[in-house]
Amino acid sequence: MADFPNFCVPLEPPPVIGKSPRRQPHRGTQTEAIMDELAYSINRTAKVLGVGRTTIYKLIKSGQVDTLKIGSRTLITTESITRLAQTRREV
């Protein structure tokens, strides 16, 4: 490789024979991805908003997000997540 100038060096390693790359499903924009589901778990909501679970529980207790209770599972509606994000953006 010392005989070739830098611009001739390949940037990516060659593909591995016998393995095809995994295809990712088209998810659209992040907003579209959020609207695909009606409700998120506590953990997923925290991840989407970039906050901790404790913050999510505080938002639930203060009534800033709407929840659905299915069995022992607490879910947060995507509508209330979107509403919360919009009100925070305006502040």
Can you tell me about this structure?
This is Helix-turn-helix domain-containing protein. Residues 40-88 form the Helix-turn-helix domain. InterPro entries: HTH_17, SinI_DNA-bd. Pfam families: HTH_17 (PF12728). The protein has 91 residues and is an alpha+beta fold. The chain has a domain at 29-90: Arc Repressor Mutant, subunit A, CATH 1.10.10. Helices cover 41% and strands 13% of the residues. A hairpin with a 2-residue loop joins strand 2 (67-70) and strand 3 (73-77). Helix 2 (42-49) packs across helix 3 (53-62). The termini are far apart. The model has no long low-confidence stretch (mean pLDDT 77).
Pick out its properties:
3 strands; alpha+beta; three-stranded antiparallel β-sheet; 4 helices; 91 residues; Arc Repressor Mutant, subunit A; single chain
What is the gist of this entry?
It holds the Pfam family HTH_17. The protein is an alpha+beta fold and 91 residues long.
Give the SSE layout.
Blueprint: H1 30-35, E1 39-41, H2 42-49, H3 53-62, E2 67-70, E3 73-77, H4 78-90
Antiparallel strand pairs: 1-3, 2-3
Helix pairs in contact: 2-3
